[in-house]
Protein 1
Amino acid sequence: MTLPLTVLKQTLTMALYITMGFVLFKSKKITLAGSKDLATLLLWLVVPAMLINSFCVPYSQEKLREFGVSFLMGLLALLLSMAVAALLFRKDALENLAVAFSNAAFMGIPLVRQSLGEEAVFYLVGFVAALNLFQWCYGLFLLGGPKSKRSWRGVLASPVVLGSLIGFLIFVTGLGNKLPGVVDGALKGVAAVNAPLAMIVLGVYLAQTQLTSLITTPRLYLLSGVRLVLIPLATLGVFTLLPAPNAIRLTLLIAASAPIGSNAAVYAQIYGRDYPYACTAVAQSTALSILTLPLMVTLAQWAWGM
């Protein structure tokens, strides 16, 4: 099976998980409070476990170099995305934030893991950690205003950043492939539920929106177009100019091509912005990404001669 078809298969699988979350919420099998508990479980346990697990590989100078390259390329992709969003949506803080940051942790990681393998997640960890750090700080700047009480201590104590730091320490100390079998098994077991749990939570977000608004709100198509097409194409163009391994470039491109992150809805709720609109933007871009993600992978393979 070719890689674009593999990506399409995985995005369709994720669509089924989203449908499950949608149905469970609509049938009141999952309550709003319960969905928040699932999101907390995902954020504070499952995603950090997956990040740590991705570092459980033998240490080598080559691996360290690859991590450094992927981290720097990830930073470049993030800065490019933020610049495009700020240029096109500077008059609306929520839209700016939503378009700037992809759903790299909840959707990007499981998609990369299932399509490219466990090793590829290693290339994505630095990007995900930086994205969450930037999103937290930029969200504070855009939505929270100068009086927000969020601190750098809170930023550095976020579960994604902590999980990335712990995993990196395990890797550089050479413990990555030497963890006790029970610990290693527990990490892998928890990490394995990331894809279904993350998509079920997204399904709950979708269930809280008016489905007709996904089709009848013209502005949403602009947000999805920039997030799913313009930014990935710009990222692909920049990556084409860089002398980096195709595995790293493709991994980061998939993450940069992911739909609007669910944190856009979370931040809208925290800062009293238009929460239903944010949920609808997340839902529409996630649905459309089923078509755009395989397309971006196909274009990348053609451009990079894969």
Protein 2
Amino acid sequence: MKSLIIQKKDLVHNIKKIKEHSKINGTDDNGNPVKIIAVVKGNGYGLGLIKYTKFLIDNGISFFAVATVEEALELRKAGVKEEILMLSTTSIKKDIELLVKNNIIISIGSKKDIEVADQVAKKQNKQIRAHLKIDTGFGRYGFVYNNRDEMLEAIKTSENIKIEGTFSHFSVSFYDEKYTKLQFQRFIDVIEVLKMNDIEPGLLHICNSSAFIKYPNMHLNAVRIGSAFLGRILVPNSIGLKRIGFLKTKVAEIKTLPKGSNIGYSNIYKTKKETKIAIIPCGYMDGINLTLGKDMFRFRDKLRYIVRDTKDLFKRQAIYVKIGKDNCKVLGRIGACHIICDITDKNIALGEDVIIDVNPQYINFNIERVYE
């Protein structure tokens, strides 16, 4: 039996720190507090979509963002009545119909998006709430920042779409200040163009968690916070966040192996003496020793990872888990569902609690989330 433990006290602490940091610049240009949009995509960053969202609501968060139609509908089905923004744009009529029917704010980033949304609005006889998505250099959803004529023409042809916000997304805010500032300026330029053409851009948001922490001058009207709530961020933790989430399980078996015994796949580890081991029923399928995708880092970071992985073929980096009160070294390769720990000379019993630091984003959906 295993579960992901979410420390409520530490999560409340992080919410408080994020609220405090969002007020560094005081208020926006209209004198309103900067709005926190909690991004709860990917099963609430691993903390459990429904439990996590309701916990945030109980602690003063009232605006949420998701990545899929399914996530948005699941929140509504669970009784969440707060504002929900669908971050991904779509031209699929059925999806827009479901979103509008359930009072989800849609994102629009192309002429086709607007055309289909207009059709749905007429069919349902209602005005559609939407945020404009601007592609400032991420290369994904949204109107391309320098294709302004197409954007303006598309917006002006819409009859039933109410623009309540405009946003973009940083691609490298965790390390590339120059490009981040370029994206920000492109976004501000687009906003000015909208205003010059009598289009009210509404709520403005571009900061993700990394930019939120590094660039308080870019907070604008709102910020989108995901990983910062978990305290697991790619930038220096300058605002005192605490790491959220750990995997809890129990020792499944204890045995003693003689000297010269191989342990785990590929026989990369061999006991140098008689060794007492504990078998733990968790592995890389449970997120153990997984890290953020290597494609998210700089070229020199990729080289570092390649070198590290090559070295690891010959000399594995030591990984430890906590069993009872002891830190125990993992032996051999981590399996899909099991790890093996050295407990020689330690007083550890069968069924003893095991605590493993893992990023909740990589934990299987079927593992229970326990808030305590």
Protein 3
Amino acid sequence: MNILEQDILEVMAYFDMFNYPLSEREIRLFLPGDASGVAITRPLQQLVLKGRIFYIDKFYSLHDDPLLAKKRSIGNQRAETDLYAAYRISKFLFKFPFVRGISISGSLSKGFADRHSDIDYFIITAQGKLWIARTLLHLFKKLSYLYGAQHRYCMNYFLDEQALEIEEKNLFTAVETVTLLPMCGNGAQKEFFASNTWVQHYLPNCRFASDDSYYTGGSLKIKKGIEALFNNRIGDQLDSFFMKITAGRWDKKERKHELNTKGNRMGIICKKHCCKPNPAYFQVEILRKYHERISELKSSNIGEYYAD
């Protein structure tokens, strides 16, 4: 088995953890090596002939299971509707004080949604005002529980303009970063992407989303007026206060080992310029499982595999 076939299986092993079969184009995009000028149709056909992968309804999978392809197709169709809703919600959330950029993350950013899917938001805030912005947004989210729409407002990752570089650099964060779908912004996302070119080490064939179709919000006079009230020492103190309150509340949840509705351990990292899910409770587990799958491929006499 040649190196290209090995790389193809590594890509498929990663997305197989999410039960997500891939198209030929997607496999090419996520290859760990430079795929410019490289044809992968024949290697894919060879892997199918060898029984290593399966081709079902225009998708490639590690499993001979038509339901996976069907589920993906249905999920892709549903995502079109959810993306429209996400755009409308993003335009509204962008009007909140100190919000500088909103992107869609999670499964929806990869074009998939089912009836249990959340709409996840990756939010960039003004420098030094992350916790004011987050607190106001989450106070609004509390209202969404009254009409059962909380799953449409999952604002779980915040960075401010001073700390745009992702700290954890690995395959998981590279995939999540390069698949972000910007909805609204004033140039913050462009700066974010420029600060995270390290993803090219893991995904040399992927490109960041275009920055020419963002909703910029127009004048937003009320937003600017509120920001003017807190662009001072009082605002700085209030921001630190909100961070302290949030950190204390989540510290209690972590000590109790609380789980979310999906059964995953709950926890966030609270810093002055960053608020994000604790990587120890999901990201690390995903990477561990990925390494295990690569090891399984090796032990199945498929060939030499290695993951960073």
Protein 4
Amino acid sequence: MNAQILKGNGLALYPNPIAAKPQEQYGQDREEILHCAGFDAAAKEISGWPGYQETALRALPVLAKKLGIAALYYKDESTRFGLKSFKALGGAYAVFRLIQQAIAAQHPGHLATPKEILSGQYSDIVSKMTVTCATDGNHGRSVAWGAQLFGCHCVIYIHATVSEGRRAAIAFYGAEVIRVPGNYDDSVHHAAEQAAKNGWTVVSDTTYEGYRDIPIDVMHGYGVMSREMSEQLEHRAPTHVLVQAGVGALAASVCAAFWQEWGATRPSFVIIEPERADCFFQSGLVGKPVAVLGDLDTVMAGLACGEVSPVAWDILKHGINHYATLSDDHALEAMRVFANPNASDPKIVSGETGSTGLGLMLAAQGNTQIWNVLGLNADSRVLLIGSEGDTDPTIYKQVVGRSAEEVLA
């Protein structure tokens, strides 16, 4: 199997040998994980939250021409609920659902609305709840924001290499933030232990034994972004979607939503990971989830994950067309390209994780074999998921040379 790995210019590509054929339907097994009803419910609730606004899908025609493709689109999540990340859609939605369920347990038959919860009508129930999670930054910020918005307590665990800027951004929303030794996966296990000890509820985007429903709520929340993209594309499928992996929750959500909508005309699906945190790539090589150990050190902080989410794997093991790993240098280069566009293309503030799709395109452009295996050509219409803006403004300015405000001025 390993002979099929293509490498060059800071990029590795592995075509998935068990990828679903175009005619294969989404199917009942996957429908039991991520389903239209779940995406519909999340869209209905989240669109009614204070401050909800559709984020922009930015066209980059000049850059597309330079790359030699027909169209390049970038879903810009840097403005999502002021949190600068798509994660605002997931963790906060799962917090909301937990609160709904706690209210329903004491008021049978009643599903509280966001307006009712925000009014403080059920504060006697909500104020006694505590949610927690481990995070490398953006997910924890979403959980903390959701807890503050809806009125419950929040404790967030971060691992050793999470930046001070990201820690402060979580604390801004009133959460107690605790740093623990080790890597991201160590902090996940620590959060689970503390929740069990203290009677708190873990709000994670990764599943594990006996823990499934809440991450699925998170993933359904992410589906709001996919629904927006579909409408912004006027329901015309792109040829390629490039999505960053992490534990796989975002990638699985996008894959599921697009598979449900476009079926046999769905895009070719490429997932991207850092070279040192490539749990999906390694799992793809052996055909089952495997863990990647070590410090997982990468500038792509939101992707520093060593273990795949099992339910995400169940969607993606056949939904992925190509696994890819990318060097840190290309992610940083892409941030600078976004900030310094050619001609009339828009200026884009993209963080280290948000820039991975363009990083792959820039790396692949110099490798004819990889470019051709990906099926990229003059007719390709490529969609990039801009998962975050300058979620750490200090790091962003160090990389780009200017602040986000200066870039957009």
